Amino acid sequence: MTETDLRVDGKVALIAGASRGIGEAAAKRLARNGAIVIAASRKIEDCERVASEIREAGGKARAMTLHLGSAQDRDAALEAIRKEEGRLDILVNNGATSPYFGPVEDTPEDAFDKTFDVNVKGPFFLSTGAIHMMKETGGGSIVNVASVNGLRPGFFQGVYSITKASVISMTQVLAQEAGGHKVRVNALCPGLTETKLASALTSNPGLDDMMKRNFSLQRVGQPEDMAAAIHFLASDASSYMTGQCLVIDGGIMARGPL
Question: InterPro entries given for it (predicted)?
């Protein structure tokens, strides 16, 4: 591996869920390494801020509205990229939701549907659309942001955990079928990370004690930790890697059950 392998100069990268947290950090990191970034999410104002900050730092970026749960938004996003950029080389499926936190037997059906629409259905159809585009231009890389909850379900996070397990399986299926077209598909499985989605846990006053017992590195992950892994998976540094789930969790999985 060389420094050049990590460069993504001129590659068009769509970051779904780029308005904050891991998606924002990934967008900025890829832009620093030469990518033409399309920062997308439901919150266009936040994506405009991310794109503006990338441009101010000397990178190339623009914002796009994209609700992963909307077929119309997904199709429109891919068509706009086809018309304006002519290609798509990197797709990062980072958007996710977890509207219900509680006993799995009490899960409301509308929360179940919303979680699957955003966390599974959206990334699946965005990925299949991206694969069609990448086949036309010689290949590409897709990175699906899953979670360690997909490997070991989180307490009171039943449906969210199920969707993240589905993302891991989806990654393997897409990798098997897209590999012959030089499209690589991998998943990132973050542990507890300092994001808005995890704020209920990261702001818990008992977290320090839990980290000392269960986190080998004894700290919560930062979006930049995950962005570094996304950068690796998106770049040629991982050119012989597909269908894998890269666990970045500070040692949670290595230390056994919480």
Answer: NAD(P)-bd_dom_sf, Sc_DH/Rdtase_CS, SDR_fam
